[in-house]
Structures are given as C-alpha cells and as structure tokens.
Amino acid sequence: MAEDALIHDPDGGMPRLLEIMRRLRDPDKGCPWDIVQDFDTIAPYTIEEAYEVADAIARADWPDLEGELGDLLLQTVYHAQIGAEAGHFTFESVVRNIADKMVARHPHVFGDDNRDKSPAQQVADWEKIKAAERAGKAQGGVLDGVALGLPALMRAVKLQKRAARVGFDWPDTSHVLDKIIEEAAELVAARDRLTQVEIADEMGDLLFVLANLARHLGVDPEAALRGTNEKFTCRFKGIEKALAARGKSPADSNLAEMDALWNAQKALERAPEKSE
User: Among its keywords, does the record have Translocase (predicted)?
Assistant: First the structure.
C-alpha cells in the first residue's frame, strides 16, 4: 500500500507524520490507547512536552532539543487529527491560520509599514493588532483571551500586564512590597482560625502579589522559580552525596546534620565567586 510505503519512508517528512497519526487513530486497525484519547486527555502531555523543550534549551542540550521539538510537534499533529475527526478543523487549516496570523501581525515585514521601529514599539504594535483580533472575536474585556491553562504564575503576570495597560497598576515597587507585607501578615495572623480553603485563598493572594513584584522588577517568576527548584535539587543532591560518604542516607540523618551540609554546599557554590 502507498500509505505503508510513506510510513516507512525516512524522507517522508510532514506527510509521513500525518499518516502515522491517522493510522494510530484508525478505529479498526489503530492503537487501542491512541483511539480513545481526546483533547482533554492529550492536553496534559502537550503542556509537559512544552516544558521539556524549555528544559532542553536551559541545559543547552541541542540533540535533546531536536527530539523534544519532535515530541511537541507530535502534539500539534495529535490535536489536529482529533479536530479533523470531529469536523472542527484540519492540520492544513491550522497551518493556514497561523501563517495568516503571522503575516497580519507583521505588517512591517510583509506589508507597507515602516520597519524603522524599536523592538519596544513593535511589541506595542503587536499588542494593538492582537487587541483588534480580540475585538473581532467579541472579546472586548481587558482580560479576555488570557488562557486558563497557563501555569498559574505565568497567567498572573499576563493578567497584571493587561490590567497595567489601562492604568490599573501600582506606580512603583514600594507599594507592591507594602502589599506583600500586608498579605503575609494576614496569612500568619489568621492561620490558626481559618479553614483550609480560606488559607489557600490567602496564600493565593500572597503568590499573586509576589508575581506582581517580579513583574515590576523585570523578572519572569516562572523562570525564577524553575531556577530555584534546580538550585534546591543540586544542593540536596550535594547533601545526599556528603551523607553517602559517611555511609548514611537522608533517612538516617536529622535536620541539624542536613542543615549543616546544606550550608556547606552553599559555601562551595560561593567559593569560586570569592576567588575571582
């Protein structure tokens, strides 16, 4: 069969991948697992693959990035196949839509607009075009169109940026810091009398203001927290290594010993800085 030849053709390109996905979803001859998937069940994998792409970039692992980009591309193909089966859209319409969008959003490249603009001005123009697109979709509210599925810190920053464009923002970081102190004090003062739901609500308020501070300082809170997660991982692995040299594991240790090893690990990290 021509389809089989395409599937086994290493130079089959995008048509090959599309045919592979079509066959995987074939209700008679496809994979039982793939057949029962839908948009909702595949969405978590899509998010995971996007983060694995970001991880490969952070590690500057270009061979791994090549593979992760393929995994992410497969997610688009997967959703497009499900959409085609339901009659919502096709892979071709997805490609056409994004190509049209890129042309429309770059009139300074593909149209008659002047290219002699700063990056900041081009970002402002981009946002005006997106606002017009939202208006065309009956998304007239300032916060309309900020995806619900974004990571919470990322979505918080996007919501705050949208509100800031219409003047709903603190003028400087001092006001944000005051609000952090206020929210933290409320959480500490009320922790013994609030329900768990109310505590979670207060914690959410505090995290939202912390995201606001990061935005005012020009810091991506999602990236900052990822960096701290990695730092914590490296330091804790250092504790495990030091304990292993003593014939122990964390379960055999105690907080005082591990805290001392943690501080020693931090000192080792700072040593090169002092010698420079």
Answer: no
- Of residues 3 and 169, more confidently modeled: 169
Element (H, E) at 189: helix 173-190
Q: What is the pLDDT of residues 210-245, one digit of tens each?
A: 999 999 999 999 889 988 998 999 999 999 999 999
Whether the domain at 2-104 and the domain at 141-219 fall into the same CATH topology: yes
CA gap 3, 22 in Å, rounded = 10
Compute the distance between CA of residue 54 and CA of residue 61 in angstroms, rounded to an integer. Answer: 10
pTM, 2 dp = 0.65
Domain covering 141-219, topology: Helix Hairpins (1.10.287)
* Rounded CA separation 90/76 (Å): 11
pLDDT tens figures, 58-88? 889 999 999 999 999 999 999 999 999 999 9
* Beta-carbon-side half-sphere exposure of residue 116 (alpha carbons within 13 Å): 0
Say yes or no to pLDDT of 276 above 50: no
> Is residue 100 predicted with pLDDT exceeding 60?
yes
State the Cα–Cα distance between residues 230 and 236, nearest whole angstrom: 10
Distance (Å, rounded) from C-alpha 199 to C-alpha 205?
A: 10
Written as one string, the DSSP assignment of 198-263 is HHHHHHHHHHHHHHHHHHHTT--HHHHHHHHHHHHHHHHHHHHHHHHHTT--GGGS-HHHHHHHHH
Give the homologous superfamily in CATH for domain 2-104.
Answer: MazG-like (1.10.287.1080)
- The residues near 34 (Cβ < 8 Å, ≥ 6 apart) are 24, 25
Q: Domain-by-domain residue ranges, the chain?
A: 2-104, 141-219, 223-275
d(C-alpha 24, C-alpha 16), whole Å = 12
Nearest 10 degrees: Cα torsion 88, 93, 94, 96: -160
